[in-house]
Amino acid sequence: MQYGHLLIFGSLVVTGWFLFILFWPRMLLFVFKSAILVRGFGEGPVPVNTLYTQPEKMFAEPITSQSLRDSELMTRGVNHDTLLSVGWLDLARGPQCLCVPDMTGRYYSVQFVDPSKNENFAYVGTRTTGTDAGEYVISGGRWKGSIPQGMTHIPSPSPSVLVIVRTLVENESDLSRAYALARQIQIRPLNLRQSE
């Protein structure tokens, strides 16, 4: 009978670790989502179904420990050659349209992440679609509408999507051009695009 308590304790420990491993990625994405939607890049919230590009000044300033808050360190310390844009899509409100300008041969990448599984499910960018201008319809799994001519369909396995955009900055003198192009990569509702 004395081993019964050990078996119960062992079962609880194994179950606890299993639940921790299962839910840890989701918890991290929830924290990341909250950081994007509530704090953005330190300048306030980023609305759902929009892309927000880190400020040009934030990218250009050298990183020093005295000038950075913890929230800025996450967004500045990762890439020194690509501008970062982020957004969170809610496809339950309807499909969204990703509009990409002609990137004139510049490297860029738009990464689509399913937060429920922490998996990348699609990419738009230099290596996958080229650098020409393009429009892409991102829709949730239950949407049954038609795709307008000339647009590419990207079905999402989840109604919630994390979007991460990276735009190459070749050198200091290229920053303004790269920033202008990064700001032209936009998300808007599909019906807004159709009415233009």
Report on the architecture of this protein.
The protein has five helices and nine strands; from the N terminus they run αβααβββββββαβα. It is globular, with a radius of gyration of 20 Å. It has a five-stranded antiparallel beta sheet. The protein has a four-stranded mixed beta sheet with strand order 7-6-3-9. The termini are far apart. Strand 4 (about 110-115) and strand 5 (about 120-125) form a beta hairpin. It has one domain (about 35-195): Sandwich (Immunoglobulin-like). With about 200 residues, the protein is α+β, with helices and mostly antiparallel strands.
Class by alpha and beta content: alpha+beta
Please report which band the strand proportion falls in: under 5%, 5-15%, 15-25%, 25-35%, 35-45% or over 45%.
Answer: 25-35%
Radius of gyration: 20 Å
CATH topology: Immunoglobulin-like
Count of distinct strands? 9
How many structural domains? 1
The H/E string reads HEHHEEEEEEEHEH
- The CATH architecture designation is Sandwich
Major sheet attributes: 5 strands, antiparallel
Just give the CATH class.
Answer: Mainly Beta
**Shape, please?**
globular
**Going across the major beta sheet, what is the strand order?**
1-2-8-4-5
Low-confidence stretches: 62-77
* Alpha-carbon distance between the two ends: 75 Å
Portion in helices: 25-40%
Number of helices: 5
Chart the SSEs and their pairings.
Elements: H1 2-39, E1 52-53, H2 56-60, H3 70-76, E2 82-90, E3 96-100, E4 108-114, E5 119-125, E6 134-139, E7 152-155, E8 160-168, H4 175-184, E9 186-189, H5 190-195
How would you briefly describe this protein structure?
It is built from 5 helices and 9 strands; from the N terminus they run H-E-H-H-E-E-E-E-E-E-E-H-E-H. The chain is of the alpha+beta class. Keywords: Membrane, Transmembrane, Transmembrane helix.
